[in-house]
Design goal:
This protein is of the alpha+beta class and 390 residues long. The chain has three domains: 2-15 and 292-374, no CATH class; 36-137; 165-290, no CATH class. It has helices at 17-77, 83-137, 180-184, 260-263, 268-272, 274-285, 307-328, 353-361, 365-374; strands spanning 2-4, 142-150, 153-162, 165-173, 188-195, 201-208, 213-220, 225-230, 237-243, 246-251, 254-255, 286-296, 299-300, 334-340, 346-352. This is Chromosome segregation ATPase.
Length: 390
């Protein structure tokens, strides 16, 4: 299946862009109001805390000034008999204001502690809404996958990043243990061994690793890999690292590929096929993926209320294709792509500029700003934009 513009040139990303765009619009419509709710809660609580703090400060200020005033008055009158009266006034004031301040301080603590609890549920809903979208809907993102295998379980993580936006997922897999055979098929690596009955000689022997377990795996979109393989007794360990047809193999901390005689026995073509096999494994065996955090310029975008800014980064990527669709399409009011099947059959999918703008405008000023970035606001804009998508 191939995704093309109306002029039959290929899209820079081979995905159903119209569906991704619709999903992005839906996500924006859901997430922006949630973030605005958090901002509103924080503002209200900040106002409440400022008012309580102002009242407490006012009482402290009153008590301090009353003490100064009374002592000045006592000194001016210079009659010892008035001192007990002044002390009684200060004592009464301190007791009355102290009780009131205790009430206000308790209220301050209650508001302060309740703030995060109140908006945490909105933060959870934001992450939930973004979970299904970010993992595959961010164009041009670099990605790195990691897999960890312990006794009886496999877990993993995925990190994606583009233009200051980062997102992290926790991954769950369909099986409890991963063997070399399951991941890579047959794999053998050479090593030196001493053989002979009467006279021991060192010879090269191929070690079949099919039953070894994959204890660690790292893979990225540059097709670089790092794999650690261990036998079931965990007393033998091999490591494979590399990419771009250049791979390094280690047994424990000794590099096998540094030994020219051993390196000659390594099937480098087989190693070069590892990235594709790893990619296929991740595609078919990730059972659970949970968005754990979203960062913008290394700050937590959820807790600092920068999700809208994250959406603008994504909109920049989508806007490139929107503008190309308008430039290469027949109708300047529609964003249209063609889907070409393997047998040459072509179908069209489209969404109108008006549909996009209307949906985003309902979100408010943030939605209208997103519409401007996409280039579907009231002014027809077919711009020459530099491609960010890779």
């Amino acid at each position: 299946m191939k995704y093309i513009y109306q002029d039959s040139t290929e899209l820079p990303v081979q995905r159903d862009f119209i569906e991704d765009l619709k999903t992005f619009l839906d996500i924006t419509s859901r997430v922006i109001p949630l973030e605005n709710s958090i901002i509103e809660i924080k503002c209200k609580h900040k106002e409440a805390l400022n008012e309580l703090n102002s009242r407490i400060d006012g009482m402290n200020n009153f008590e301090e000034k009353l003490d100064i005033l009374l002592r000045k008055l006592v000194n001016e009158i210079d009659v010892e008999d008035v001192i007990p009266c002044a002390n009684a006034i200060l004592q009464t004031c301190s007791e009355n204001l102290g009780k009131k301040k205790e009430v206000l301080e308790a209220e301050y603590t209650k508001v302060e502690n309740g703030t995060s609890h109140e908006y945490k549920k909105f933060e959870g809903r934001i992450l939930e809404a973004l979970t299904r979208f970010l993992i595959s809907g961010v164009y041009g993102a670099e990605k790195r996958f990691e897999l960890f295998s312990t006794t009886g379980s496999i877990s993993g993580e995925m990190e994606g990043w583009v233009s200051g936006l980062q997102y992290h997922y926790r991954l769950g897999f369909t099986e409890e243990a991963l063997t070399v055979e399951k991941l890579l098929g047959n794999l053998s690596l050479p090593g030196w061994t001493r053989t002979g009955i009467l006279r021991k000689e060192e010879k090269i022997k191929m070690q079949d690793l099919s039953e070894f377990l994959v204890s660690f795996l790292e893979y990225d979109t540059q097709k670089s890999i790092r794999i650690t393989l261990e036998n079931k007794k965990a007393n033998r360990k091999f490591r494979i690292e590399g990419g771009e047809h250049r791979y390094f193999v280690y047994e424990d901390d000794r590099e096998i590929t540094a030994d020219k005689e051993l390196e000659a026995f390594i099937d480098m073509e087989n190693l070069a096929g590892i990235p594709e096999k790893v990619q296929a494994y991740f595609k078919t065996n990730i059972r659970i993926y949970t968005l754990s955090k979203v960062l913008l310029d290394e700050e937590d975008a959820v807790s600092t209320n920068q999700i809208f800014d994250c959406l603008k980064v994504i909109a920049e990527q989508y806007g490139v294709i929107v503008q190309e669709c308008l430039a290469k399409g027949h109708n300047k009011e529609e964003i249209t792509i063609k889907i070409e099947e393997a047998d040459g059959t072509r179908t069209e999918k489209y969404i109108t500029r008006a549909e996009i703008y209307t949906q985003l405008a309902e979100v408010g000023s943030e939605g209208i700003e997103i519409a401007g970035i996409l280039g579907v606001d009231n002014k027809i804009q077919i711009k020459d934009r530099k491609y960010l998508i890779v």
